[in-house]
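Reminder to self: tokens first, then the designed residues, so the page reads top to bottom the way the pipeline ran.
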């Protein structure tokens, strides 16, 4: 069993049970600089990972735009099993567009003309292939095909929600590849996740670098792709719990696995510098992780 991680479980179930948005007992002295409560450190760590999962979902959707929708290959082939089908045969067949509950609009839908504005419209509710209920719109501007160095995207949201969680902010991706590596830099700017049932929220800013470590020799075949992710972030929630984080051991993300399979994030509360370690495991593909606070570890399930 690996010790941390993209889950197929609905976010409403997972977030309600383990996150900041739950109805668990709250500490009455959250903002005290001398409060060592390990529950608040765990709270920050769980917020960190779950919020990142929301924006990784945005990455997979926007970078997974299909050539059949865009008129040409402008994405990175991500997101199989989220909105589009898992296999290439299914994704390239007309069957994949049957009974879709979302629409994709590309302006201009003319090969080679950029910038392009791509809008994923989920209407009032669209159940994805991953079991998540999405509504509203994701709007992404592409400056060029994202396989080409220097190409960028900027994503914003219009009343966009996943299950009962509203997603806001700006999400950018840039191809930063060089002659000896394929890489993409991502930024979450003024990100915010709000539980629409309780109005509890998390605000989050983050920078990440994704370097492709395997599959470089087969650019049109994605199943062998493996990425190494590094970076840092800072967040605060509606309880006043504030933290910073650093990826202290690179996170490994395989295209063939929905979840992170390896790596560690160290989360530090700003009020008293208490830390938590999120350990994503030994490389196995599952949705388990180990959360360690004050030397005490427990296995948890995350999206």
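Designed residues (303 positions):
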């Amino acid at each position: 069993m690996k010790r941390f991680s993209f889950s197929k479980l609905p976010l409403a179930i997972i977030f309600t049970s383990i996150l900041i948005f739950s109805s668990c007992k709250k500490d009455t002295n959250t903002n005290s600089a001398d409060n060592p409560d390990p529950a608040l450190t765990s709270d920050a760590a769980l917020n960190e990972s779950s919020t990142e999962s929301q924006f990784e979902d945005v990455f997979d959707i926007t970078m997974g735009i299909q050539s059949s929708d865009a008129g040409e290959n402008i994405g990175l082939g991500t997101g199989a099993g989220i909105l589009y089908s898992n296999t290439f045969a299914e994704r390239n067949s007309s069957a994949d567009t049957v009974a879709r509950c979302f629409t994709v609009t590309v302006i201009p839908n003319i090969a080679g003309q950029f910038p392009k504005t791509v809008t994923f419209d989920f209407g009032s509710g669209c159940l994805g292939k991953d079991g998540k209920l999405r509504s509203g719109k994701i709007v992404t501007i592409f400056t060029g095909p994202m396989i080409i160095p220097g190409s960028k995207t900027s994503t914003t949201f219009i009343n966009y929600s996943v299950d009962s969680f509203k997603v806001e902010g700006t999400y950018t991706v840039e191809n930063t590849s060089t002659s000896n590596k394929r890489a993409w830099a991502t930024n979450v700017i003024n990100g915010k996740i709000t539980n629409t049932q309780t109005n509890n929220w998390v605000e989050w800013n983050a920078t990440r670098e994704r370097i492709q470590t395997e599959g470089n020799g087969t650019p049109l075949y994605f199943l062998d792709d493996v990425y190494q992710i590094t970076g840092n972030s800072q967040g605060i929630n509606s309880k006043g719990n504030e933290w910073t984080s650093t990826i202290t051991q690179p996170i490994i993300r395989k295209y063939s696995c929905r979840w992170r399979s390896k790596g560690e994030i160290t989360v530090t509360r700003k009020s008293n510098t208490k830390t938590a370690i999120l350990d994503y495991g030994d490389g196995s593909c599952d949705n388990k992780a180990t959360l360690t606070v004050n030397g005490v570890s427990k296995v948890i399930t995350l999206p």
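The first strand starts at residue 103 and ends at 107.
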